[in-house]
């Protein structure tokens, strides 16, 4: 019975550590760019405009609109 309890406890600890929050990862909340004009076809251009708007994480195109990556 002691061996079963030990194995169960180790498996439970492994499961709990996998569910917990990951250290160093922040959530990103997209915001529509204020300065990007026209349809967004290139995420590279969008990211450059977003960095000009002080969004250091850049941006991406989605549905022809430019979204900037903003930490939540």
Q: Please identify which CATH superfamily of the domain at 24-72 we are dealing with.
A: Knottin, scorpion toxin-like
Give me the CATH fold name of the domain at 24-72: Defensin A-like
* Biggest β-sheet description: 3 strands, antiparallel
Oligomer: single chain
Basic shape:
rod-shaped
Please give the CATH class of the domain at 24-72: Alpha Beta
Level-2 CATH architecture of the domain at 24-72: 2-Layer Sandwich
Low-confidence stretches: none
User: What letter string, H or E per element, gives the SSE order?
Assistant: HEHEE
Q: Which structural class matches the secondary elements? A: alpha+beta
Query: What is the residue-averaged pLDDT?
Result: 82
Count of DSSP E strands? 3
Give the percentage of residues in beta strands. Answer: 15-25%
Placed side by side, the strands forming the largest sheet appear as 1-3-2
Protein name: Knottins-like domain-containing protein
Keywords: Disulfide bond, Secreted, Signal
Pfam family, one: Gamma-thionin
Subcellular location: Secreted
Summarize the model shown.
With 72 residues, this protein is α+β, with helices and mostly antiparallel strands. It has two helices and three strands, in the order H-E-H-E-E.
